[in-house]
Design a protein that fits this description.
The chain is an all-alpha fold. Helix 3 packs antiparallel against helix 4. The longest helix is centred in the N-terminal third of the chain and has 36 residues. The chain is extended and about 60 Å long. It contains four helices and no strands.
């Protein structure tokens, strides 16, 4: 009975370690893409020039949301063209989808930034 428990624990541990390694590799690839795109460098430079860590973090947040909004808009265009056959084909919907995704991501980021600033101000005034 102990051998069965040990075998099951070993298999579960190896599976969890494998999942952790895959997640770590995906995180490294995302970080490499952010460095390659200049997001890390420009947001760090922005924070250093402004003299505030918060400014650099906000710049990083805005850039990441804009870069994430592009594929979201393109996926919406692809889904729309897949579901509705008479949809216009060509490059125009793809550009519109990318711009719409960027605009939507920027609006969501601005709302989240406003919410975080107001909450931080409110929590700071309570102390």
């Amino acid at each position: 009975m102990n051998e069965l428990f040990f075998g099951a624990a070993l298999i579960i541990s190896l599976v969890l370690m494998g999942i952790g390694i895959v997640i770590g590799l995906i995180g490294c690839m995302v970080l490499a893409l952010l460095v390659l795109a200049g997001v890390m460098t420009s947001s760090t430079l922005f924070g250093v020039l402004r003299g505030k860590i918060g400014s650099g973090l906000r710049a990083f947040w805005y850039q990441c949301s804009l870069l994430g909004g592009i594929p979201a808009g393109l996926i919406c265009v692809f889904a729309t063209q897949f579901l509705f056959a008479p949809w216009e084909r060509g490059a125009v919907p793809w550009f519109a989808g990318a711009l719409g995704g960027m605009a939507g991501a920027l609006i969501l980021t601005l709302m989240l930034d406003f919410l975080v600033r107001k909450t931080a101000g409110w929590l700071g005034s309570r102390s």
